[in-house]
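Before relying on records like the one below, remember that each one covers exactly one chain. Contacts with other chains, cofactors or solvent are not represented anywhere in the record.
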Amino acid sequence: MKNTRWAVQNGGRPIYATLLAALFIPCSLLAAELSEAEKAWEEFQAASRQPPMPKEWRTKRPSQEEYQEYSKKVRETLVLGADKARDFYTKYPKDPNAQRAMRKEHEFLSKAVSMGDQSQSARLAAVEKARLADPNLDEDDRFDLLSQKLNREVRAKMAEDRAAAFAEYEKGARELLKLFPGRAEVYDMLLVAAQQKEGPQARELLDEILKAEKAGEKTKAQAAALVKKMESLGKPVDIAFEAVDGRKVDLKELKGKVVLIDFWATWCGPCVAELPNVLAAYEKLHDQGFEIVGISFDQSKEALTKFVAEKKMPWPQYFDGEGWANKYGKEFGINSIPAMWLVDKKGNLRDLNARAGLADKVRKLLDE
């Protein structure tokens, strides 16, 4: 059983430890020890609380400078929290919270590095190496360390070569599967890899997940939904609605055009990051017969219309305010965004992963 961590807690210390200590240590000395460790733990918790996001950001999108300043404060808090965690487990190595402090040091350093603080990379690597070398490290912690390390390495490679990065991700997931054959989480990782593949390669990996005894039911349900989407390739897509700006949209009436169906949201960082590429493709190819239909996962109509106006996005947007439960998200099994589909001039679905190399894919379909 993964220690709870492993006895009933009493003020942050297991009851059994408190009782044993009371038998051999004068009460006055025990109280002093307890109060010192507890005070240090409280100081760590206070120092590691991340600054709250400004309330005004709920209704007003922050400027790039404001967001960068906030991110800087968060990174500084994470590093301070990691320092306090190290101080705690160094000073109180036998305290029940020592192991938790070790986990927190790694967690905070990992977040700081992922947010761009590369000055902590060497320290993070050293912390990982030391913890993985511990023969007493339990399976859960070992798995978490290795999977987080893999995620961080893949994110670093993503900007250079997305396809190569996900190939590395699948390779790493399979190595974890050999080390931890009973972990259902590995199949979640393989599902992410499958979502980046196309055709037979994607289907082969999805079938593997569906047949795996250790894969979770939710993971299998998502894999089955992906299979269903793949089976939709080459068939018409039935989408018709009234856009937020009042335009009538029906994909059946767009035959002769190449259409991008963009499942997205204004609050989705990767969606917003992808927008310049989508806008560039639209500006270059719209006159040649390229159209875009947005399916918004937003829950605020005001936020959507304001964002669309600010970014000068001329294509129609579907909105029903239901977020992840929106009509087309549920119908087509969309469980992550951005998701970009391409429909050819005959009205048939041709690509479920149009995000990579969008402009080239559109040109190819326009030439058919």
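The chain has three domains: 9-137, 157-231, 240-366.
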